[in-house]
Amino acid sequence: xxxxxRKEISRRNLFRxxxxxxxxxxxxxxxxxxxxxxxxxxKRAVFFYxxxxxxxxxxxxxxxxxxxxxxxxxxxxxxxxxxxxxxKGVDYKTSNSHQGGxxxxxxxxxxxxxxxxxxxxxxxxxxxxxxxxRLGVATQYEGADIAKAxxxxxxxxxxxxxxxxxxxxxxxxxxxxxxxxxxxxxxxGAATPPxxxxxNTLKKSLLDxxxxxxxxxxxxxxxxEKTKLDLHLASIREIERRLQxxxxxxxxxSAQCTKTISQTKTFAVNDTNYPKAYWTSDVFDAVVDMQTxxxxxxxxxGVTNVxxxxxxxxxSNAHFANGMxxxxxxxxxxxxxxxxxxxxxxxxxxxxxxxxxxxxxxKGMSAIKEGDKSLLYNSVALAFSExxxxxxxxxxxxxxxLAGQAGGYFRTGRCIDGxxxxxxxxxVSILQSMGLSxxxxxxxxxxxxxxxxxxx
Length: 456
Description:
Largest sheet: 7 strands, mixed
Radius of gyration: 25 Å
Order of helices and strands: HHEHEHHEEEHEHHHHEHEEEEHHEEEEEH
Number of strands: 16
Number of helices: 14
Number of domains: 1
Shape: globular
CATH topology: Alkaline Phosphatase, subunit A
Strand order of the largest sheet: 3-8-1-14-15-2-16
Strand content: 5-15%
Oligomer: single chain
């Protein structure tokens, strides 16, 4: 060891550096908290699927810009009009089949999938505990086949992630946040308290759990080493205190992370029946609401940055009556063939229901505060279906609604004309809004670059 190094680690310098560390400790704690708890610029992506396409005149506004009027299907989005971008004129470049649109929507690939879907891709770029959280509502009921799949992973080309979509909200909540799996189903009409869970690993103090080992180590250290260890332990203790405060919060959903949802049903985690209790049309509405809240909390609590929220599947067999899911209603897919008799009004009502649920997702994300912004502001969400015109099975002028600003990247409160653009351009815009530099996604022979009009 040369003289210069010896001088650098002299006893006097060591005391000086240690003294500086004591002075800087509060500032280091602040820095560590910003890294661990602030994350106000952390971006998320949400993909909201609704089945069976649209009626163009009932979905798209007639004008572009900020003064647009929402017709029947999208009228429920009026309550969040300032937070959305209505997208007209964007086409899918896929074959003329119902299921072809489902496979294409998130992959940008034609028929034989050779690409991962955008939810999988973003999950790999911005991984959390769960790279991409996939929640569904009756997605597996008479629909668990590759032809209807939306999401694909990278295993020797695209492979469907059907098995990763969780349709049971009770199971999803328990897996993400802990909580009881044996709560009885509420009696009809009874008020149900919010469900709250806290993972056991977050209930325990790392220091307390290793107290004996720490004491043993302290007894073996000299004065300087023991002082340094004490400073380090104090930092960990403070972080644990703040983490406990966050994870045991009992405030409302406007707090960033509550691990709480308003429970409307409890389902058996291991349901061996067919159909499953959570697939039936009479609980469809309750499951949508529960899955939506779980998705929001998963993002707010930092469990994931990417969510797929899937309402049923293409050729959906969910039943609706008077614009609401109902065990005695009409098959959703049947009503999508709206040119048959008077079904246009019924299909409009059914898709308005889907847009109501999308609006609820937007409102819920907006209620989660992140600094002086919100979860919605820091996110991009896309509502999409597998078809444009549902009766003709067209892939023109798709029913696409963007929400959120992705941290200021998008300018919302507008309707844009994307004529001349294809859906691949929209997928690229989403990637770029998340901070990636990709200029293509999926089919490279049809489009490159994003949709500049989305940025305003």
